[in-house]
Write a structure and sequence with these properties.
Blueprint lengths: L15 E2 L4 E3 L2 E3 L2 E2 L9 H10 L6 H17 L6 E5 L5 H9 L4 E6 L2 H11 L3 E3 L12 E7 L8 H11 E12 L7 H5 L8 H10 L3 E8 L4 H13 L5 H12 L3 H18 L10 E7 L7
Parallel strand pairs: 4-7, 5-6, 5-8, 6-7, 8-9
Antiparallel strand pairs: 1-2, 2-3, 9-11, 10-11
Length: about 300
């Protein structure tokens, strides 16, 4: 598929994707670098996340990626669609999508280049680095955008949503996941550089304000939410004397219960996801939103 990428800063030629990298004039580059922003994320946080969530095998991450693939399956109508993942991090969702939807043209992206450089060697997927609120991509560019746990890391999330709308083709979809319930914001969120948590009603309103049509709105982690809420409320009562102490507590929370507990929790999440194909959950640990840019835009 012939996808045209914008010319990155420092070059005069239009980049050409060659299946194992980009050719820009006479130079070969592994990723295209546009605008960078590390305010809500950085390479050290990627390394921390990668180490603590067991190379993408952490039960919440696995279930989250599966939900995204479920949504892709339900909205994917034609072959050769263009899918952009925003916030590709370590590339696990890119891997899953490439395996499940081999006929799609898949683009990975992140706001910092270090994470993309780590996956560029063997991904054979075009990778671009940019700040979403200063998105360099042209209007009506992609068919589907996936942004899992991205908006909470962006200070101006309204502008980020505007950019998602702009670069989607008419009739295109966005699959969005964010942490739920601002009242549960604690040191865990601070350590992960979250600007906020979300209320699903307000998230829906944000989307409709940008002229999106709501396709599906629900929650993720409904069955484990009571225990999650108790832990979060307890965290809010505890004083965290320093950053290192907070990091230690974050690690302890991630691995609470050990491998057997994570195995059980994954199967609980799996049952929830399958039931979630036909029902919406009133609460949970994350908000799920699938939205569509209308074919005919409002003026």
């Amino acid at each position: 598929m012939d996808i045209k990428f914008p010319t990155p800063p420092g070059y005069n030629e239009v980049p050409i994707w060659t299946s194992d990298g980009f050719k820009v004039g006479s130079e070969k580059v592994s990723i295209l670098k546009y605008t960078e922003c590390d305010i809500g994320w950085d390479a050290s946080l990627t390394d921390f996340h990668e180490k603590e969530v067991e190379a993408g095998n952490y039960y919440i991450d696995r279930a989250s990626r599966l939900h995204a693939c479920f949504e892709l399956e339900s909205i994917k109508k034609t072959k050769n669609i263009v899918i952009l993942e925003i916030g590709s991090s370590s590339g696990y969702l890119l891997r899953d999508i490439k395996k499940s939807f081999p006929d799609a043209f898949l683009i990975g992206s992140d706001c910092i280049s270090e994470t993309l450089e780590n996956i560029a060697a063997d991904s054979r997927i075009p990778l671009i680095q940019f700040d979403l609120v200063k998105c360099p991509l042209p209007d009506d560019y992609v068919d589907v955008i996936i942004a899992l746990n991205v908006l909470e890391h962006i200070e101006n999330d309204t502008e980020a949503l505007k950019q998602i709308y702009r670069i989607l083709k008419p009739g295109g979809y966005a699959i969005i996941e964010v942490p739920a319930n601002q009242d549960l914001y604690d040191f865990f969120d601070e350590q992960l550089k979250h600007f906020r948590r979300y209320n699903l009603k307000n998230l829906r309103k944000m989307a409709t304000n940008e002229n999106f049509r709501i396709i599906r709105a629900s929650h993720f982690g409904f069955f484990i939410y009571p225990a999650f809420k108790i832990v979060k409320l307890w965290n809010k009562r505890k004083n965290q004397p320093n950053i290192q102490y907070s990091k230690t507590n974050v690690k302890n929370l991630i691995h609470m219960g050990g491998p057997f507990n994570e195995y059980i929790l994954y199967w609980i999440m799996l049952v929830e996801l399958y039931l979630g194909k036909v029902i919406s959950y009133p609460t949970g640990i994350r908000c799920l939103l699938t939205i569509q840019k209308p074919i005919e835009e409002k003026h």
